[in-house]
Amino acid sequence: MSARERVSSVDTAWLRMDRPENLMQIVGVMVCKGRIDDERLRRTVTDRLLRYRRFRQVIQEDPDGLWWIDDTDFAIATHVRRSLLPPPSGKTELQEFVAELASAPLNPARPRWEFNVVETADGNSAIVIRIHHVIADGIALIGVIHSLTDGRADAPLQTGQPAAEAGAPPTPNRGNAIDDTRSGIWRTVFEPLVDLAQASLSLGGNLWGQYQGLRRDPAGLRDYTSVARAVAEEIGRLALMPSDTPTRLKGTACTIKRVAWSEPLPLAEIKAVGQVLSCSVNDLLLAAAAGALRSYLVHKGDAVEGAEIRAMVPVNLRRTGDGEELGNHFGLVALELPLGSDNPLVRLYATRARMAALKASYQAMLTFALLGAAGMAPRFIEEQILRLLTSKATAVMTNVPGSAEARFLAGCQIEQQLAWVPQAGDIGVGVSILSYNGRVQFGLITDRNMVDDPQWIADQFGREFDKLLWLALLETPERLTDPLLVADDLNALSKRHDAPAAS
After folding, report:
1. How much is the average pLDDT of 48-58?
2. Is 26 in contact with 112 (CB distance < 8 Å)?
3. E strand map for 264-318
4. I need a labelling partner for 425 at 20 to 30 A (CA). Which of 13, 65, 157, 477 fits?
5. CA of residue 102 relative to chain centroid, distance
6. What's the pLDDT tens digit per position in 147-164?
């Protein structure tokens, strides 16, 4: 009988979140130049992906809990396979295919991942990747997928040991020690929050350094009274946080998804605009996404004055050097996107200020601990925690840096990369911003009940960045502070693009 390993509490929480309306699977797309060789792709996946034990394991449940066990019937052909796109096999058909797979659950009787290869009419290949969140989070999986690629087309295959015998990189489950040693309601619900809350009590904003120190020496925690007070205050703030502005972007999720993506933007231009406007690349991209969502609501005739929607943004909580760890080790912060103003600079600087405030908080570490507690608690308690986290938000938004240079998969150059994390509860909008090979790609996955035409939003993303680029090129510091002068320039830009100025 193969050895088994307990599923961590945080990973258990993500497994339990599966709903027909929102499946807990990470979906990625790689568009490769030319036709990919099926046999070489399978050999690459076998040699490199299966080094990670999780990709050849299934989850078994018994009275003692959930366990990872080896799949004795594992076959690579069931996980790396080819499908057909309907004619004319273009971008629209590929997007519909991705949306269909995003709406279909992975088979729990097999390891929960799949590579699906299709050919497009332009002579290229696309690989649609689905991996269940219980295996790993998006930050870890970016590294895993990168390990399948090479820096040149003629790179040799890594053969080494057979995959079934190769030692997998370590995949520690941080919740296992807690699951195995803690008992009682106090320890089940409270102790996962201890190191997290303690990290907020001192060091004047240097929360990350203190958090890492506490992870190395948890025995140093003694002041339970102050810890409990800090935890209670933060949970209270989270619980009392009002719902964001009701819009058509929020509602009751269904089982049908829509997928769209934009044309890529040059990363060098984004960095240059950021320098002129004294903002980070992340600030610019989030503000452009907020502008695109605002434009969509205006396009639909909805009122947007004073509107603010909340996006849950994942924050990596791994230590440096933990790149090969699987499992889930991230928290969430709730970013309020300022949709109420028609001035892109107002939106940009509001976004910058709010992100700065979130970086100084310990909200990400708290939500991570809450998910750990949810995974250890009965399902009805997890439902309450999930409802608390998801009812306050309209979207999930990720911004992930990919490779700075072109990469090759099974000998074919990767032209485009996209990836979406799942949306929990009734959240119906997922925003993906991913940089690769000097370009930035914006993508959307939406619920049909809320946004049936996400391509409109995807196309608007570039136009929103153009507004900031235009202002960076034309404005002096004095003009940037004058709303009337900025409005005049935006009107000129909108006429140039034949688009409404207020969008």
Report:
1. 95
2. no
3. 265-266, 308-316
4. 65
5. 14
6. 999 999 988 876 444 433
% pLDDT > 70, the chain: 76
Give CA–CA dist 5/60, Å, rounded: 10
Give the DSSP letter string of 214-241.
HHH-GGG---HHHHHHHHHHHHHHHHHP
Tokens of 480: 């940037």
Which run of H or of E encompasses 68? strand 65-70
Q: pTM of this prediction?
A: 0.82
Provide the 10 A C-beta neighbour count for residue 199.
24
Of 178-187, 206-215, 241-250, which range is least confident? Answer: 178-187
The sign of the CA dihedral 248, 253, 255, 258 is positive
Q: Could you report how far apart the first and last alpha carbons of the chain are, in Å?
A: 62
DSSP 8-state class, residue 154: T
Please give the Cα distance from 297 to 342 (Å, whole number).
Answer: 12
Angle (CA) 478-480-484 rounded to 5° is 100
Report the alpha-carbon angle 160-164-168, nearest 5. Answer: 75
Peptide bond before residue 86 is cis, with ω within 30 degrees of 0: no
